[in-house]
Amino acid sequence: MLTIEKLRTPLVGPVDLALEKGSFTAISGPSGAGKSLLLRAIADLDRSSGFVALEGTEREKMPAPDWRRQVAYVPAESGWWADDVRDHFAEAPDLGGRLEAVGLKDALSWQVSRLSTGERQRLALIRALQLGPKVLLLDEPTSALDPPAVARVEILMKDCTAKGCAILLVTHDPGQPERLGARHLYMENGRLSGSPSREDAQ
Amino acid sequence: MSGYQALTYWDLVAASVFLILNAVFSIALNLGLARTLIVSALRMTVQLILVGLILKAIFLAGSLWWTLLAAAVMAAFAGREIRARQARRLSGLWGTGLGAGAMLLAGSLVTLYALAGLIRPDPVWQPQYALPLFGMILGNTMTGVSLGLDTLHTALAQGKRDVEARLLLGGTRWEATRPALRQALRSGFTPIINAMAATGVVSLPGMMTGQILSGVDPREAVKYQLLIMFLLGGATGLGVLGATFASIWRLTDTRHRLRLDRLDTR
């Protein structure tokens, strides 16, 4: 579904990666390895060279806003430009259900300044899901959540892949790749590999 | 010009009595202000006397080229000032060029319009009209442009996450930077809006005061002042709009990325 060949930025790559429809891919590795930078590069938020294509259509062939709606990136710390949570969401029939699924039924009437880190994390994920993306790039989507909330978010993510989207996530939770049935990759010094190097495995 | 009272240099010395008194107080009370006060007063005196001499020479010469040269020197000082007043500015030549260019474009356009279309001196570039008018317009546009750019650059640098959040949700570079743009425009327009609101109620504008003191009918002085205020407002607005839009264009790219790498921090 998403094809990446020789993707390169000054600090990352070259990276080759293919994401299958309806699949999970997890990346872990030490901080500073370039995991977030890789996701930023795929979302075209940082300049990069190489070939990136969605279902055969090259990234540069479509306007960047269209690309980002289909290949949605949720950073570890999300941005909120208005005071009220409601102003960050468009009205949509499936919005209420998704909010309820992560335990934030009434969150639309809240103020952004009073959200906890974990609440922001879940709301940012739903905000991205509302775009109806084909690929989701998630940077530590559950790092600030307690175990019950993690379980709810994982169900939401599985819902998404069941409908055919591909998810690439960065995670430090050692059990998460297995729970999601994800292909597990490791990143070190800007390069991806199938197994951790000796230091990282400890 | 019937009621005009010419001043002698002794009048000026007498007028500085209160300023000198302040310096004496400062020394007596050990405030440490005397030195700065006297230095800036002397500096102002030298600057203004020089400007008076130069303007006199240019008026006498009546030459288009000397007039243009004087205008160019004024624009260069204003351009440097715009650059100096920004905590974060565009890197490279853009740092000076963009702000100065917007100011110069807006300032020259409005000055030429006023000279050729409204005031119509003969010749159109007559320095007695052209230089003071250009100076006033340039000064106000300079303040607006530097405030607008400073606010914009700070808002984009500190609000990087918010701007990128909107880009990530499929916003264009113009949609994503709109809150920063609005903030920048508001701050660039504030001085001129405040000036228009306070003019005549709180203070009589300097130019109008000058004309009244030199014997012009207050109603005529008011007309001139209104003309100037409209021109200043127009030029400032054009300059601020041009500079902020151009700066957003420079700080983003065609793939709708925020390019803070094109911004220098002092």
Topology diagram in text:
The complex is a heterodimer of chains A (202) and B (266).
Chain A: E1 2-8, E2 15-19, E3 24-28, H1 35-42, E4 49-54, E5 57-58, H2 64-70, E6 71-74, H3 95-101, H4 117-129, E7 135-139, H5 147-162, E8 166-170, H6 176-180, E9 183-188, E10 191-193, H7 198-201
Parallel strand pairs in A: 3-8, 3-9, 6-7, 7-8
Antiparallel strand pairs in A: 1-2, 1-4, 4-5, 9-10
Chain B: H1 9-15, H2 17-28, H3 34-61, H4 64-84, E1 88-90, H5 94-119, H6 127-158, H7 160-168, H8 173-176, H9 178-198, H10 206-213, H11 218-251, E2 263-265
Antiparallel strand pairs in B: 1-2
Helix pairs in contact in B: 2-3, 4-5, 4-6, 5-6, 5-11, 6-9, 6-11, 9-11, 10-11
Concise description?
The complex is a heterodimer of chains A (202) and B (266). Chain A is of the alpha/beta class and 202 residues long. Chain A has seven helices and ten strands.
Descriptive overview:
Chain A: Pfam families: ABC_tran. Chain A: Keywords: ATP-binding, Nucleotide-binding. Chain A: This is ABC-type multidrug transport system ATPase subunit. The complex is a heterodimer of chains A (202) and B (266). Chain A has a single domain (2-201), classed as P-loop containing nucleotide triphosphate hydrolases (Rossmann fold, 3-Layer(aba) Sandwich). The longest helix of chain A is centred in the last third of the chain and has 16 residues, at 147-162. Chain A has helices at 35-42, 64-70, 95-101, 117-129, 147-162, 176-180, 198-201; strands at residues 2-8, 15-19, 24-28, 49-54, 57-58, 71-74, 135-139, 166-170, 183-188, 191-193. Chain A has 202 residues and is an alpha/beta fold. Chain A has 7 helices and 10 strands. Chain B is mainly α and 266 residues long. Chain B has helices at 9-15, 17-28, 34-61, 64-84, 94-119, 127-158, 160-168, 173-176, 178-198, 206-213, 218-251, and strands at 88-90, 263-265. In chain B, helix 5 (94-119) runs antiparallel to helix 11 (218-251), helix 6 runs parallel beside helix 11 (218-251) and helix 10 (206-213) packs antiparallel against helix 11. The radius of gyration of chain B is 22 Å and the shape is globular. Chain B has 2 domains: 1-61, no CATH class; 64-265, no CATH class.
